[in-house]
Design brief:
The protein is α+β, with helices and mostly antiparallel strands and about 500 residues long. It is built from 14 helices and 19 strands.
Length: about 500
């Protein structure tokens, strides 16, 4: 009897020791994630990063871990959104308003409460600014401390996206206490890190926000972000171990680092490069579809992507960003003879045009110029820099001129991208003629609640746009970030965009 009693007791004791040891190992592993400063370089420099209405271009990348939005696009499911400062939202049956339920117990970095009043103060500013974001919100009502109603002047399938990404929530108290000029460079949000130091064109310093609403996060004590635009200098800093990661790596540096096999290379689709023209003016060469098609057949996209992108760029043949797999179109691949034939049919065998391009795109221009010369199109180089080039992108090309421009987009928010860049009246692609029926299909897609049906409409729009050679797609660029193998848990891209999420980042101390 004693032996039969001893055996099960011994069994449970052994199990207890094993489980206890496993629990201790698990706790030790979790504890190892805490502490340390993640040091990384951003190839671009920070400008205004405190007032959401003034944040432009890449500047959000410096404060994505400082400021938060009500919701965020899903990182895994196309056309869906995930909670952040809001926990739930519902559209009225008649689509006249959205009701958002807000997260309780959230604090701003200055210790003040995040609540419905703070949301109304922030988003009222967007509504009154008349900027494209929240342009369908006509008024905002506070129903209680954690419930907000957004009254709509109209609804479409992209309205919800306006509550994500750029419409960051900042502390109203900080604004009222310090004023506009101070806020421009002092973001006070609810994120996992708070900004504690900012030297223009030098560095940004962040500390772990102990009051962050996600329990146990972030793991890191802080972040230190250098701003070194010169690739050789940034490369040297990375190799010397002065930084742990590099955001915004150029293809040449990325190719060199990839060959060493010593770094984790993280990539994500970026803007699409295109040639645009004036096809609305009947006097323009490009009002003739045959010339638009000839232009595409004449350019060797595969070579462009290979030579300019060093293996990181992808040749593209679609008009709508991200819909090519089911578009059902036959790509106009490199075929100089076909280009010559179309030019002969149009009676335009020898023509001369200007091509405006960003000065840094000289290598791409050289290839395009040679390709077009081969079929009888002489291209006069017109390099442009800085703001002058960006201005070109927002105005119609003059008569027969060409512009080597770009198209922004996201594979997770295709309809948002199309509505922003290709809708009639968009600030993008002015002078580019939209095919007959394109606008009607877009309107139908915007009013369609069923996601799969919206996608079918987008596929139909792509077929129509590509058949009409709406513009010439060339290649899709790639965002490149490099980090050391000991950097763990970092998401440099979110929902197909460079929105770094460093809440769960940690440094492996064993390395």
């Amino acid at each position: 009897m004693k032996r039969s009693y001893f055996v099960p007791v011994l069994f449970f004791l052994v199990c207890g020791l094993i489980l206890g040891w496993g629990w201790q190992q698990s706790m030790a592993a979790e504890k190892s994630k805490y502490g340390g400063i993640l040091k990384y370089n951003h190839s671009k420099t920070a400008g205004v990063i405190g007032d959401p209405l003034k944040i432009r271009g890449w500047n959000h990348e410096f404060i994505d871990n400082v400021l938060e939005t009500l919701i965020v696009p899903s990182d895994t499911e196309m056309g869906r959104y995930e909670p952040r400062l809001a926990t739930a939202w519902e559209l009225a049956p008649d689509k006249s308003y959205y009701i958002f339920k807000l997260r309780k117990g959230v604090k701003f970095h200055d210790g003040t409460d995040f609540n419905a009043q703070a949301v109304k103060w922030n988003l009222d500013r967007w509504v009154k600014s008349k900027r494209p974001r929240l342009d369908k919100v006509k008024s905002i009502d506070v129903l209680d401390d954690y419930t907000v109603r957004f009254n709509l002047s109209g609804w479409d399938a992209v309205t919800l996206s306006d509550f994500s990404k750029d419409t960051f929530i900042i502390s109203p108290t900080a604004w009222k206490k310090h004023g506009q000029k101070w806020v421009d460079y002092h973001p006070v949000g609810t994120g996992p890190f708070r900004l504690v130091g900012f030297r223009r064109n030098v560095h940004l310093k962040y500390e772990r926000f102990e009051g962050y609403w996600m329990e146990g996060l972030p793991y890191l004590d802080g972040l230190f972000v250098t701003q070194i635009p010169d690739a050789m200098t940034a490369m040297a800093a990375l190799k010397r171990g002065e930084i742990d990661a590099w955001q915004g790596v150029d293809p040449i540096s990325g190719s060199e680092l990839r060959k060493t096999g010593k770094w984790n290379i993280i990539t994500n689709p970026a803007i699409k490069r295109v040639i645009q023209f004036n096809s609305t003016d009947s006097r323009s060469l490009w009002s003739d579809k045959r010339l638009r098609e000839a232009l595409e057949y004449a350019i060797d996209k595969e070579k462009l992507a290979r030579v300019v992108g060093r293996g990181y760029f992808i040749p593209v043949y679609e008009i709508l960003y991200g819909v090519s797999p089911k578009a059902g179109t036959k790509p106009r691949t490199y075929n100089p003879e076909k280009a010559r034939q179309l030019l002969r049919q149009a009676g335009k065998q020898n023509i001369t045009v200007k091509l405006f391009y960003y000065a840094a795109d000289q290598d791409a221009f050289t290839i395009i110029q040679a390709n077009l010369k081969d079929v009888g199109i002489t291209v006069v180089p017109s390099p442009v820099t800085g703001a002058a080039f960006h201005k070109k992108l927002f105005e119609p090309a003059a008569m027969n001129n060409l512009i080597l421009g770009n198209q922004r987009g996201s594979r997770t928010e295709i309809l948002v991208s199309v509505d922003e860049t290709l809708a009639p009246g968009s600030v993008f692609f002015q002078g580019v003629k939209r095919p007959k029926g394109f606008a009607a299909l877009l309107d139908k897609a915007l009013q369609e609640e069923d996601f799969s049906k919206r996608m079918e409409l987008l596929y139909e729009m792509e077929r129509l746009a590509y058949q009409e050679a709406m513009f010439v797609p060339l290649w899709r660029e790639t965002f490149i970030t490099v980090n050391a193998p000991y950097v763990k848990g970092t998401k440099w891209f979110w929902a197909d965009s460079p929105y770094p999420d460093l809440r769960r980042s940690w440094l492996d101390k064993k390395k």
